[in-house]
Design brief:
mainly alpha; globular; about 120 residues; single chain
Length: about 120
């Protein structure tokens, strides 16, 4: 499990990666120049795995059970509800403290969504 200070440092690194990616996009005057975004996504996935968030298996479950049935299988798990927090942080809609809270309390957020 990641310590609070370690998680905070990783979020700072993600911020730097995303800032540099936006700078590169500005140079090329294109939003399609997501050169660093794959590294950001890999780091986000690693953080979520270290926090104990199950792997996203939506595609597998849709292939196995069909669309939309695969979404409603109990074993289906989608990480979108928590990766949205990374997106909102990158867009400036969440503070770092709010992102940290959402990441550290992902179980509670999932429970709320299931209600």
């Amino acid at each position: 499990m990641i310590s609070n200070s370690g998680l905070s440092a990783l979020i700072d690194i993600l911020s730097e990666i995303n800032k540099k990616d936006r700078e590169i996009q500005n140079v090329f005057e294109s939003s399609g120049a997501d050169i660093l975004s794959k590294y950001s996504e890999k780091l986000q996935d690693w953080i979520l795995t270290e926090l104990g968030v199950p792997e996203d298996n939506t595609v597998e479950m849709l292939k196995k059970h069909g669309d939309p049935e695969g979404y409603f299988i109990e074993e289906t798990f989608c990480r979108d509800f928590i990766t949205d927090s990374f997106f909102e942080f990158n867009e400036g809609n969440l503070t770092k403290d709010e992102l940290l809270f959402n990441l550290q309390n992902w179980n509670e957020k999932l429970d709320e969504l299931k209600k």
